[in-house]
Design a protein that fits this description.
globular, PAP_assoc, metal ion binding, single chain, MTPAP-like_central, mainly alpha, poly(A) RNA polymerase activity, 8% strand, Poly(a)-polymerase, middle domain, three-stranded mixed β-sheet
């Protein structure tokens, strides 16, 4: 599927056998260097990859992030990943170095300038010093939610190059940088706000969800297995809408009812009145979910007409 209106035109595709999605773009060297930069971050510390995956899965389940083809208001995965990298730069001591520090560490073979932007950084993670930070991934994830739940996104510009958030107005914002409710500067192309598509409603909801997740991470349910068989820890955090404000007890999630593709659906539709064996199997499955999983009271009702 072509997306000619994108900032850099791409062709989106999906590999049917695996379900993996991807983009094809031509002559976009900055994208290649961005990918190598994120790869360097992942190789620099073993906590980076699981933390990024956790934040992205959480945001996806909350309906906050994705790759909308129409350039919608959701956070894209690249922007969310950069938020995690920036968060790790801010730790004391830092988990990841700033982009400016990486530029100073780059050797002659690592020098790169694309479109006038300095994209120099070491290509080998072995050149980086190990972080002195000893926080666990779970504690980092909890603090990620706490930090960004109260972050002034609209009043600051997040800079991965310096590992700081600069209060607005700042005199040296590059020409063409689009200010908005969430200002996240690309680590190399400094005139690009990678979250420029995010509207005020999405930014506010992102922070509400962060605050709700931070509150949940302080609870016993996050740290201790439930004695009643309920979802706990990361499992509940990753359930769709499970930690949305006002949905603390809702825990919305999907339970599939498997039917035999070899003949189940055919038999279901062919039996007169639609109430053959498969109809009652589905009824039993729904009743099981209501009664035994959701603990609802179930009583026999009048048969459908």
């Amino acid at each position: 599927r072509t997306v000619p209106a994108a900032r850099r035109p791409v062709v989106k595709f999906c590999h049917k056998q695996s379900g993996l999605a991807g983009d094809i773009s031509v002559d976009n060297r900055l994208a290649l260097l961005n990918t190598r930069f994120l790869q360097l971050c992942a190789e620099a510390d073993e906590r980076v990859r699981p933390l990024v995956y956790a934040a992205r899965l959480w945001a996806k389940r909350q309906g906050l992030a994705g790759n909308p083809s129409g350039g919608g208001p959701l956070l894209n995965n690249y922007a969310l990943t950069l938020l995690v990298v920036f968060f790790l730069q801010m730790r004391s001591p830092p988990v990841l170095p700033t982009v400016a520090r990486l530029r100073d560490m780059a050797g002659d073979e690592d020098r790169a300038v694309v479109g006038g932007w300095d994209c120099s950084f070491p290509r080998n993670a072995a050149a980086l010093e190990p972080s002195a930070n000893t926080e666990t991934p779970c504690s980092l994830l909890a603090d990620f939610f706490r930090v960004f739940g109260d972050f002034d996104f609209a009043g600051q510009v997040i800079s991965l190059r310096e590992g700081q958030a600069w209060p607005l107005p700042i005199p040296d914002v590059p020409e063409g940088f689009k200010l908005g409710p969430l200002n996240l500067q690309d680590p190399f192309e400094l005139s690009h706000n990678v979250a420029a598509n995010v509207n005020e409603k999405t930014a506010e909801r992102f922070q509400r969800c962060c605050r709700a997740a931070a509150k949940y991470c302080r609870s016993l349910q996050y740290r201790r297995k439930s004695s009643k068989g309920r979802a706990w820890g990361l499992t509940r955090l990753f359930q769709p809408g499970a930690v949305e404000p006002g949905a603390a007890n809702a825990g919305a999630f999907l339970i599939s009812v498997p039917l035999d593709e070899a003949g189940g659906s055919w038999r279901f539709h062919r039996v007169g009145g639609g109430r053959g064996p498969w109809f009652w199997e589905v009824c039993s499955a729904v009743a099981f979910v209501l009664r035994d999983v959701l603990k609802c009271d179930c009583t026999a009702g009048k048969a459908p007409g």
